[in-house]
Amino acid sequence: MKRTFLAAGAAAITSFGGSILVLCLCFSSNAFAAADGWASQNGGTTGGAGGTVVDVNNYADLLYYANTVGTTPYIIQISGTITLPGTGGFTIRANKTLRGVGTNPTLIGNVGFQNRDRNIIIENLNITNPCTSSSCDGISLKQDINNVLVTKCTIYDCGDGGFDITNRSSYVTVSWCKFYYNNPAPAEDHRFMCLVGASDKQTDDRDKLRVTYHHNWWANRVKERMPRVRYGQVHVYNNYYSNLELGGYCIGVGVEAHLRVENNYFNSVPNPWADYYTGTGYPAGEIGWNTGNIYYNCSEPNWATNEYDTIFTPPYSYTLDDANLLPIIVPAYAGAGTPYPPHWLFTVYGDFDISGRVDIADLATFAGYWLTDDPEADYNGDGIVDFYEFSLLAENWMQ
Hints:
single chain, Pectate Lyase C-like, 4 helices
C-alpha cells in the first residue's frame, strides 16, 4: 500500500506551451496510514487522525502522549531509540498513531495497550524486547483491544512472542512488516513470532481474533507461529517466508482456527502449515488455501482437507498480487525504514493514497514529485517525473 507524507506548502512550477503550470500544495501534515483488511471493519481504524502531531524522543514524553492524555487523538512521531521500563513496557490508549521518523526509530521493550481500548496505528518502527521471561513480547495485544493497524514495522529478537494477539482482541491488520531473529537470539528455544489465541480453553475467543496478515516477511531464524491460530478468523495473503529455522513451521492450525491462505510464497520452508490441534475436546481448526500459493523447494501439505470453498469470506475488498512477485516486492518494502511500494503495483497511476480514484489529494501528492527522479512516481523510468506522468494522472482523473 502506498502512502506519502509531505510537508505543507510544497509546490512545483514549470512552463508548458508558453503557459505557466503551478501545482500548489497547501495541506495539513496530519496524514495517516489507511487501514485495510480486518482493521478497516467495525467502524474502521484511523488512529490519531485529526489530532495534534507531536515529536518525542524519550520515554516520559512518549508515555504522556500515548497514555496519560487518555483517549485524546495524537499522532506521535518517534525518533531515536526509546527504552521502555521493566518487562511490562507501557500501554497505548485509544485514538493514537505511533509513527517512527528519522533514522532507525526504535522501541526496546514491550508495547501494550490499555484494556478495552481501540483505534490505534503503529507504523515505521523497529520493535525489540531482548529479555528472556514470558513477558518479553515485542507487541502484546490482549484484553479486548479492537481496531489496530500495525504496518511497516520491523519486529525482531523478542524473548517470548514477537507480536501476540489474544484475549478477545479483534479487527487487526498486520501489513508490510518484517520479523526476524539474530544469532544468537535472546531465547534460542523460543523463536516464535505471531500467536493468535493463547489457550485452547479460552472459548470466549470465538467470533473474536479477526486478523489480516498481508505482505509481511517472516525471515531469518524464525521457527514457529507465522501465525499460529486458535479460534480466530485469520486471513493470510501475499506474505513471504524465507531463511527460516529448520524443524519448525509457518502457519499453525489450532483449535477452532479458521484460516484463509492465499497467494503466499513459501521459500524452502520446513512446513508451510502444521496441525496444532491438541485433541482437548474442542473442535479442530480448518484451513482453506487457493491455487495461487507457491511452494519453492518445499511441498504443499496434504494432512488437512482444503476448506477454501467454505472457509470464511472476508467482508473487505483486497487485491491478490501474483505470488511470483513476492520475493522481489516484499523484501524491498517490508519493515521500518523501507520505501513504500510503487503504487502502480496495486492500483492505477495517480491514485497515490489508494482511495479508489485519482482526485485532488493525489494531485497534491504528485506536486511533491514534480521534476524529481523519485522511483515512486517515475512511471516510465526515464529519471524524471514530468509531463509523461502528468498525462497518465490526467487520463485517470476521477475515474
